[in-house]
Amino acid sequence: AQRGRGGGGGGGAAAAAAAAPAKPKLTTDQMEKRLKSSIEEYVELKDLKEVKETVGELGSRECFPKLQGIPLEMAMDKPALADVLIPLIDFLFEDGTVTMEELMQGMDDAMEFLEDTAVDVPAAPRVAARFVVAGLIKGYVTWGYVAKVSDAYMKETGFSVRFLGMILKELVSASESAAAAKERWSKSGMSLAQFGVENEEEFADINKLDHLFPIPKLEKKVQSMLEAGSSGDDVTKWVEGELPDPDKDVGQCLMRCVMRNMVAKLGGAGKLVYEGEPKLIE
């Protein structure tokens, strides 16, 4: 009998729990406020897991893009915060809390209004470039996304060229070496022309990216050295001083210069043929 009364009591507790009203779902505004509060607290305490717990308590993925959008907005307002906030985004992505698609979506608002924001906050594009490059290196931002927002929001006014310069400078700075940055750019499948760059040499010079795009400057210099009668050893020494790690493109550039110079000495007017890869002089 006692067991029966005990069982009845347990059943009553279960029934009461079942009858209790469900916890109300947070509104979008409430979720955003909780995320922002948690991220602001993280800036002070540097507790990554606390942010993850807050995210897990939201009950919906609706505001997950804000895990990129809120830190980006905060850092554009106070650039020094980028050093603290980018590792948070890296952690949440690598931990599987947030997806690549959600993080790229979270950049959309900032990208759309970046040129306007730069008028009042000149550092904003450089900060945005840092967030983009962090994502490119960690794998939660794609070059395709960068090209998409460039076409949609920046190309018409020419701002895409300026922003690309900032991204590539940050890529060189964040990569293990200039060679690593060049490899990342090469693997992107992108071209400067896709972002509205019309003069590669001028673009590289303005943004101090000669080591990333060395060919125009290299070709002009080597050609002038050969025409002035410099020896092959002199040319090689200069190239090695400028480019400690020459690649296939540098070798092809030197070959073109030497062949063009030989044709000129023989009294011909040489022109190189391009079909994807440089071919012989015709």
Report on this structure:
This protein is 68% helix and 3% strand. The protein is mainly α and 282 residues long. The chain has a two-stranded antiparallel ribbon with strand order 1-2. A hairpin with a 1-residue loop joins β1 (272-275) and β2. α4 (66-77) packs antiparallel against α5 (82-94). The N and C termini lie far apart (106 Å). Residues 1-8 have low confidence and may be disordered.
Quick recap:
With 282 residues, this protein is mainly α. The protein contains 16 helices and two strands. Helix 5 (82-94) packs parallel to helix 9 (124-138), helix 9 packs across helix 11 and helix 11 (159-174) packs across helix 12.
Which value, in Å, is the CA radius of gyration? 28 Å
Overall outline: elongated
First-last Cα distance: 106 Å
**What is the H/E order?**
HHHHHHHHHHHHHHHHEE
| Strand composition percent | under 5%
Derived structural class: mainly alpha
